[in-house]
Write a structure and sequence with these properties.
single chain; two-stranded antiparallel sheet
């Protein structure tokens, strides 16, 4: 049985065999069903809007550079009150992709060469196979990374415990006496 990657709700495959000189501009705009699937996939209450504007261009000899933005309006549950919290996502998308068999991608790993990684710099190129790239799924990854993992309604605070300890209940008192601790 062949392993099949789960498809992104905003999947959009771009053919990269004949990219125009200036690149291929693409817009991925999610419809109601896609927005509902995105909300479910990312644990959101709802996704009101989702739009990715991308430019797919040739990079080096046989690589691909994808750049642009993903914008969305989402509603999450507050981690304190569980009330809806609205948020706007506006995330830049920057990715370099190389064919799996590219020398450029293997150079650092197979050839004993060094790969210098800069935490603030661009990510190292990812690989692809075939002649299409799912630019919709790539944009969704950036969308997912931009979602606040701890959304909080304005003014909501977590009470980390008060200075005065709460009085022990009857069960705790009995347990303490049985354990012989005072």
């Amino acid at each position: 049985m062949k392993h099949v990657d789960p498809q992104s709700p905003v999947s959009f495959r771009a053919n990269i065999t004949r990219l125009p000189q200036k690149g291929l501009p693409l817009v991925v705009e999610a419809d109601a069903a896609q927005r509902a699937a995105l909300a479910e996939e990312h644990g959101l209450i709802s996704v009101e809007s989702y739009r990715a504007e991308l430019l797919v261009a040739s990079w080096k000899r046989n690589g691909v550079k994808i750049s642009g933005r993903v914008e969305a309006d989402i509603t999450q549950a507050c981690i304190v009150t569980l009330e809806p919290v609205e948020a706007h996502i506006d995330e830049p998308v920057e990715a370099l992709l190389l064919p799996e068999d590219s020398k450029l991608g293997r150079q650092g790993f197979d050839g004993g060469g060094e790969i210098l990684l800069d935490a603030e710099g661009p990510d190292s190129p990812e690989t692809f196979s075939g002649d299409t790239i799912d630019v919709g799924a790539l944009a969704e990854q950036y969308f997912g990374l931009a979602i606040d993992p701890y959304p909080r309604k304005q003014g909501a605070a977590l009470n980390a415990g008060s200075e005065t300890e709460p009085a022990e209940n009857e069960f705790q008192q009995k347990l303490r006496s049985l354990l012989g601790k005072s």
